[in-house]
What we know:
Helices cover 36% and strands 16% of the residues. The chain is built from four helices and ten strands. The strands form two sheets. Strands 1, 2, 3, 4, 5, 8, 9 and 10 form an eight-stranded mixed β-sheet that branches. Helix 1 (2-14) runs antiparallel to helix 2. It is rod-shaped and about 110 Å long.
Amino acid sequence: xxxxxxxxxxxxxxxxxxxxxxxxxxxxxxxxxxxxxxxxxxxxxxxxxxxxxxxxxxxxxxxxxxxxxxxxxxxxxxxxxxxxxxxxxxxxxxxxxxxxxxxxxxxxxxxxxxxxxxxxxxxxxxxxxxxxxxxxxxxxxxxxxxxxxxxxxxxxxxxxxxxxxxxxxxxxxxxxxxxxxxxxxxxxxxxxxxxxxxxxxxxxxxxxxxxxxxxxxxxxxxxxx
Length: 225
């Protein structure tokens, strides 16, 4: 407001004046020219209105950007509870990376019976093909087995159809070597038991690295949806 008053004063000072004065008479202040003052004031108020409108539009744009970012963040947070296909992991399953897993430590089944147990939940034995997912699975297993019970865990891998051709229950080739498979006696790389051991297990004594076992052993099922 002070700035407007100063500008008005300056506009008055530079406005031409048309009032006549007696010759030789020194004016104290130049007389006001009404039309000139009104014109300058009109321009100033028009400029202020335009600036106010621009600020209003800028604020509205920022509000829209804020609302859009909030919506995106909400969707991102919500996606952490969803499988990639959009189906939520419902209890008793838990989201583990991109997998929905259920480890039933209280259950002890043969490999075939473990698959049947998982099928009762609309699932199958767990499978994975990259080291990051395997690490996430191991983290989940150790979280569930916080009491460190000596329980081995079935996963969905077998070479029963063709010896030493290890396949997941999905028909995909299983990864071989470290960091997936463990060792026996500290040096013999798993799997190593030939036709006598055709099913894959997370072996507790080897920190849950993969081993081959006879499919008739009884272990806890790790189910995946």
